[in-house]
Amino acid sequence: MTSTTNAIISQIVLLPTSLLLLMAAGCLLLAVRWRRSGWTLLLVGIGGLGVLSMPFTAQKMMHTLEQRSPVEPGLLAQAQAIVVLGGGIDPSQPEYAADTANSASLARIRYAAFLYRQHELPILVTGGNSTGGEADGWVMKRELETLFDVPVHWVETKSVNTAENAEFSWEILGPEGVHTIALLTQAWHMPRARQAFERAGFTVVPAPTVFHVEPVQGIMNFIPQADYLSMANTAIHEWVGMLWYRMTDGGRPASARPG
């Protein structure tokens, strides 16, 4: 499947499209007088949208993914390099006259700079661009070097998903004898990223960043909010991604599997 097809399927499966389609199906059934089925789908869609928008629900979902503690210095000392996964770019930003790292990528390179100051491990940045614009890798390299004064040793720019991040990073680092890496990405993304990189052949020292550690207090925990629907959607995306990787040998089609 093409990246466009994958994106369309993802949007149908994820929020809010899946629930909107469920509610639309309920309305159609009501229109043809299948009242019980129609009301069931409509109420499930509305209820799901409300529950998944609650801070309480979204936080619980996210905590199933997040490692609770940052990387231990002793474990980090075992790594031969830091690998930073691209999280996307903000294209053609007028104030910079250039593409810039989006909030996810910026959080990752900021933490990469922090770790580099402590351990001076060589850095690989990995990330392409499925739309044909400037690759995540080049943007992250530019900002690490110009904004944080941190050198980038390797740049990978062909990958368009986490499985390819791992595969193409191995193609660069494996021949150089770099097999143990500090893997740097958001805490919620770490389980799937670690799964992909270990499958590619790396020994992974997880170095997660951006933890969801501040719970919402009181009645606001149960008031639906748009930001928390997005958080729930992120958790669902990661669950589906991990399941897909297990079913497809790390995201590769059956024809690409070894043996």
Automatic annotation (TrEMBL):
Keywords annotated in UniProt: Membrane, Transmembrane, Transmembrane helix
Top-level taxonomic group: Bacteria
Pfam families recorded: DUF218
GO cellular component, one term: plasma membrane
Record carries keyword Membrane: yes
Domain DUF218 span(s) in chain numbering: 80-241
GO biological process entries: Gram-negative-bacterium-type cell wall biogenesis; peptidoglycan metabolic process
TM stretches of this protein: 12-32, 38-58
Protein name per UniProt: Uncharacterized SAM-binding protein YcdF, DUF218 family
Organism of this sequence: Pollutimonas bauzanensis
